[in-house]
Amino acid sequence: MSTDIRDTVSSAYTDALERSRAGTGGCCGAKPCGTTASLAGYDAERDAYADAAQSSFGCGNPLAFAGVQPGQTVIDLGSGAGFDLLIAADKVGPSGRVIGVDMTDAMIEAARANAARAGKPNIDVRKGYIEKLPIDDAVADWVISNCVINLSPDKPAVFREIARVLRPGGRLSISDIMLEDAPAWLRTNAAAYSACVGGAISEAEYLAGLRDAGLVDVEVTERLVYDADQLRAMVHDELGAATVPADVVDRALAEVTGKVWSAKVVGRRG
User: Fold this and answer.
1) How far apart are CA 67 and CA 55, in angstroms?
2) 196-240 pLDDT tens trace
3) Are 33 and 262 in contact (CB under 8 A)?
4) Residues spanned by the domain of 109
């Protein structure tokens, strides 16, 4: 199923990028996955990088209060149109380096264009999968990601890659979607991955996966539990497009309301 998931996700995000440029939608279906850039904690940055912000499809701000310092190297998993790359580039300054990895050609093109427009030559956007990063060992002071790892069909591989590319003592700061007790059909529906829900795992499983990869001091520092209206914005339009009957979607939402949240996860390589 992993190929189907990747193809579906890549297609959905290419379409979402076009709709965001046209002002008709976001990601993860026809609505942004989780929150707008403002609600996700990007008030100041949104105004500074308006073009990139309108194509930002995350569920939080992984760089908020992260402690990134000038001269450091930041890697962004699933960097999309580059909004978080621009913010990271401001934090590391001209002497630092920011590397983005994405699998979707349209997103890579947009991120490179946004970096050039902002005059950020220290941003390097690479094509690849987050399960097998095109990056050398132990080069990153920080790994960040924003509502992307939930889309991966092989999360343990992603967690191992995070540990591999971090320097000893390097830190992670991730915003992602957590889900408890999902209906079985939601887990096996490829379109549900694009809606940021089908591939989400529980918080306990997420933290255990990071620890199993060798990361330490792993914890959740922030949570935002979604209500029914927010879940519908995340799921309903995308699953409807996948020809899942609306009444089935409604029943699923009733089952998972109160069990889906965005979380900020931090940790480090020992």
Assistant:
1) 25
2) 666 789 999 999 999 999 999 999 999 989 888 877 766 555 444
3) no
4) 2-269
Number of other CB atoms surrounding residue 164 within 10 Å: 18
Yes or no: say if 102 and 76 are a contact pair by the CB < 8 Å rule: no
Tally of domains within the chain: 1
Cα–Cα dist 147/2, whole Å: 18
Backbone angles phi, psi at 250, to 5 degrees: -60, -40
Please give the angle made by the CA atoms of 124, 126 and 81, to the nearest 5 degrees: 80
| Residue 49 φ then ψ, to 5° | -130, 65
Q: Are 163 and 137 in contact (CB under 8 A)?
A: no
3-state secondary structure of 213: coil
User: Would you say 32 and 63 are in contact if contact means Cβ atoms under 8 Å apart?
Assistant: no
Domain at 41, CATH number: 3.40.50.150
Rounded Cα distance between 221 and 111, Å, is: 28
- Report if pTM > 0.90: no
Q: How many helices (H) and strands (E) does the chain have?
A: 11, 7
